[in-house]
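Subject: Sanity check before I submit

Could someone independently write out the structure tokens for this chain? I want to compare against mine line by line before I put it in a report. The sequence has 422 residues.
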Amino acid sequence: MRKEILLAIILIPTLGFAQILGSGDYADPIFAADRHLPMGIRSAGMGGTGVASTEDFSGIFYNPANLAYIYRFELSGALHFDALSYDSDFEGSAKNGSDSYIKLQSLGGVIPVPTTRGGLAFGLGFTRTNSFDRRIRFSGTGEDGLIYEGDESVKGGLGKFSLGAGMQVSPFASLGMSVDLYGGGERYSWYLDVTNPGGSDWPDSVEEKIYVDDIRSEYTGVGARFGMLLVPIKYAQIGAYIATPTSIYIDQDAVQRFDSLTTGWETYEENFSYFETIEVILPWKFGAGIAIRPTDWLLFSGDAEFVDWRQLEYDEPAELLYQNRLMDDSYRSTLRWSAGGEVTIPIAALRLRGGFSQEPIAYTVQGDNRNRNTISGGFGVLIGELMTLDAALQFSDWDVEGTRLNESYDLARIWMGLSYRF
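---
Independent answer below. Compare away.
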């Protein structure tokens, strides 16, 4: 009985509709494999590039080897505001809505160390790496004659605290390493009301069924990143990194309720609750980037990251290990890429930025070959001689295909932050 209750609860985010409308032989969606965020406002304005082009503390998250070329102390912090709009299509019945969120995006700094030759600097900070925030509502009459009304909400995200260093090993190269401690949280809520107007396969005495689920999850984990940066000529930089497999522990506290209302106004109710720790191992990540500066006032940059998400694994509890055999058909390998640029206007102490990125969605169950496309822009302006105000704006869109429910999302994200260098 324990196994059946556990699976009924921890599969809620995966099944959602499948729980009521069907089933499939596939693995769960793992939120840490999706909705990746740029790390740093400057990078966000340039499409999310940063492996070879970061000039601030966000280098610790992209490529710690970049820290070796920072020679001033730095303190930085940023917030982001999300405005999410959605459209649902449930068997021809359309519905739309919106939601908004404001979060701390990053906070940290750089400490350069005086050296007789080359450069050495340490970085310490926090950044949000994944956003789980999502909302969808739907309603309509299905082909089975039943009336459906549903509301699914996910709030939260994943971030990491990083400590790292970059050191120049020659006039043209540097190496870096960071240790990443992951933390975050998620609240998943699911409500579904199914009404029988008559003529369905339900017993005539059953008028309504209500499903209410609430799952609270706390995330912790540890990983590491190794990077290198080459400066073969004055006008170009080439960077690369390897991120080790990351163990993510999810402490999940779940409640599931089912109500069945009869014509005699009698209610049959079932309640399940459970607490369980789940361990997920995220796969290796490989990334590379290039930055080209043809003049002192113009920069072009590009990044790419390859991950084979089919290597995702559950390590515990034992009840979930069977899902590892489903990863090959439920996930795909992805090549996430971005490109951007920056123009400096010295007379106004202003930098203008723009870029584009594409994130292939790794979970294939809800539609093959889906991509999240993002257009971005931003600016940085020097205030006095020590402080910089940075801002970025991003627009993203993506779709989710289902058997009976199709979802469409549009996201506008605003970033604001300050950096102080001395």
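---
OP: Matches mine. For the report I'm noting this point. Residues 133 and 155 are 4 Å apart (CA to CA).
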